[in-house]
Here is the input.
Amino acid sequence: MPHKIASVHPRSTALRGASAVAIAALVLTACSGSRVHGTPGADGVRDPYFPQLGNGGYDVAHYDLAIGYDPDARHLTGTAEVTARATQDLSAFNLDLKGLEVKGVSVEGKDASFHRDGQELTIRPAEDLDKGETFRTIVRYSGSPETVTDPDDSKEGWLRTEEGAIALGEPSGSMAWFPGNNHPSDKASYDIRVTVPQGLKAISNGELTRESTKNGRTTFAWHSTEPMASYLATVAIGPYEVKKSTTKSGIPVLTAVEPSEAKAGAKALARIPEILEWQELNFGPYPFSSTGAIVTREGDAGYALETQTRPTYPGAPDPQLIVHELAHQWFGNSVTPKSWRDMWLNEGFATYAEWLWQEDNGGDSAQEIFDQIYAGDYYEAKEDNDAIWAFPPAKPPSAANISDSPVYERGGMVIHKIRQAVGDDTFYDIVQGWTKAHRHGNADTEDFTRYVEKHAGGEAARAKVRAIWGPWLYGDGKPQRP
Ligand code: TRP
Ligand code: ZN
Here is the structure.
């Protein structure tokens, strides 16, 4: 757009030049003053697929969300307290929020002015913020939260159900129910308190710290200690059946199941401890303080999601789907992509976890599954088999493709190629070393390839893994079988 204006209308270029000078002058004047010195934080973090997601100039440490929801009126009231550290001198900064009405904003206890433009909520504090300063922003908001349609036409954000709602946030939907720095690169701890009509339950991430009923409304307070990306935050409101248990290693398990799914789901859900223990042997220590599941009715969402500690399933899951979503707790939730381009690190590993599970549980081996896919007889339909080769996993052609099969199956094949190249012992060292090195952090594709090269175990193996990246990760078309 700016390019168009500049080349077609030279006059506006001149105007823009003039205003830039004026702004520079203003900034200079401001800098010589003592109180006003900051500049506005960026309105996005330049994600290659979702440039408006996230914001620049600060780093969130903690979200304290208090939400009330009335399912009959479809009305949400929220107070979001965001504790962040400024990474530059700030005169203004943005949070991402889609829909809803902002009632008021304060920063460090003083009323702040705000402006909304699409999904950008721009906040101008009464006083500029200093680089390095930790500051608290409170946003009061309300309204009927939106369902967000993704570039691939899937639905996320706030999804209404028969008795309540579920909130799903990959890649962008969390901004439909709370204002935040909505990008996986900025993880934070969370307190999520949800008040619903008595009789309903509100399930979220982490551990339940309080449940109290007053005047016909029940408040559920949930706490997530470990860092969480905004896309993994969830709330599920409904008449859930809640069950608690503990794994042998002492991790609390909480499942919340829509009553109509309880019978169908019971057997697979009972295997969560066993699945988690198997994953700990393969991937390293479980990164979070609790686990479990949220099972909604089948049509309530179009897909399962690895919501942190407590994946969400639309309908009773089978063990393999539980394996996939719990594998994400290591791959995606603890080791989180730096941008949405690194999606294959999530889905490739979660898919490969399914193959390993089959291999260890009397099904096909990962090698057999790899061979079926390569031969084009994994799926029934030819177009589904062909689709796996549509693009390289580390370079999806657009935002609409980040959850296509090249990211999942071909991503899984990349992991298997590494295992072939280095052998099982080194492979599991690499997997466990990777989850340890980046535990509760962010990583991208290059971090991963560098890590694998470094730990491949000698020059010959290093050369072998290096030969994988070009054709399997970045190259177009179906790689030649070596
Ligand atoms: N991550 C989910 C899974 O595989 C699938 C998914 C849901 C997804 N929404 C998405 C993937 C948006 C990419 C983008 O379990
Ligand atoms: Zn997945």
